[in-house]
Amino acid sequence: MRALLLRDLRLALRAGGGFGLGLAFFLIVIVLVPFSVGPAAELLGRIAPGVLWLGALLACLLSLDRLLAVDWEDGALDLLATSPLPLEGVLAIKAVAHWITTGLPLVVAAPVFGVLLNLASPGYGVLVLSLLLGTPALSMIGAFGAALTVGIKRGGLLLSLLVLPLYVPILIFGAEAARRGAEGLDPTTPLLMLAGITGVVLALMPFAAGAVLRVNLR
Amino acid sequence: MPDLGKYADAVLSAYAVSIVLLVAIVGLSLWRGARVRADMRAVEERTRRDG
Amino acid sequence: MSLWEYANPVKFLRLSERVLPWLWGLSAVCLVVGLVWGFFFTPDDFRQGSTVKIIYLHVPSALMAINAWFMMLVASLIWIVRRHHVSALAARAAAPVGVVMTLIALFTGAIWGQPMWGTWWAWDPRLTSFLILFLFYLGYIALWEAIEDPDTAADLTSILCLVGTVFAVLSRYAVNFWNQGLHQGASLSLDKEENVADVFYQPLLLCIAGFVLLFFALVLYRTGTEIRVRRTRALIAREGKLA
User: HSE on the CB side for C207, CA within 13 Å?
Assistant: First the structure.
């Protein structure tokens, strides 16, 4: 399992798309926001938690269709399916690799981008915490979506249509926690809900994704 | 026609939209059903003649 | 004689041929009588004026929008457990009907909301959940359309339906939470069932019955269509092999 994780990470690094592209996309989204709503600092500060969450979510979505497609095209996925490792485990590892290359950099960069959007000072800790709790679930749901659409040519758009509605509860609780943090309110409830959802997703989603991928490999 | 008062536009447009949508889904279903039925009959005829 | 007999496509078609005329007729009668009764022969509400007449479309369609998804869930489960093709096709056939019901509920809701709440659209929990439900329907249908092999498509969409149900319920609660977080205690939603008096209640029941019957008629008919599509395709494939 560790070998697979290391292999996926190395591939992502060598392809150069992993760390850089998601972050750059995140930055672009954040930069475009003031252009679209105006540079008023007070307004930006108010919408900053939501915008940061939305940007992180979109950046996460962007790299999903490559999650399984590369291994599908060169046949590595068939090899993995016949290996002693259960397919559920393979997908969980892939989701972890995706999170390390996409989610983790977003979490680290979010406070920096928060400065650009004039995020209120008490909000930074909660923002990072909520992203840290929420992004693993985004990657895992994404792995499910990627497994669903892996056999479809140009499945990227379909993937977004399938995955984005599933992201709704996570976005709601994550952004709510970040907003409460920024306004100095108590963010415990949404954070706990977010942690609960992430826990359930991480525990159960590999099975759904594994079942789906097995159908696609038939 | 009952007197709908000042909300006549709202009520009438709600009924219009709903009825159009209902008729559309029923019509589409029937149209596609009839076409598929004809196709199947044609293919069945052909296979019976050939085979 | 058990229910599972109708998992056989031929028997299913024969049964649906017999039942369908009755279903179409009954649903038409219920809908026409219910709507005409509701539209022409019920008084206006003292607070809402004539807009109360929208209830005869709004409530039944909203009910059926949710029930259609529920029916798809049951059909998907039957497909996963017992692998009856008719079941998978019924789920596929129900989805567009569900979309139409959701659209009617959303449109009539917006038209009703404009004079009553002063806005076409508010991010009220119920409205928002319906919009999310609509997105789920779209994704489900898109996945069906995108996959060529019918069995693969049936497997994938039924798993998507299961996962989607869990997340739709989650979203429902999340949305509730989110809106309360925004404006405390300000409830836009009128409690629909509480203050419906008998005059409105009886035609409403008829309309609901009409929508339910219409839904069943549509699903039965469309499932038959899907079965025929598949049979035609199989025949053509066999023809190609023989030639």
Answer: 25
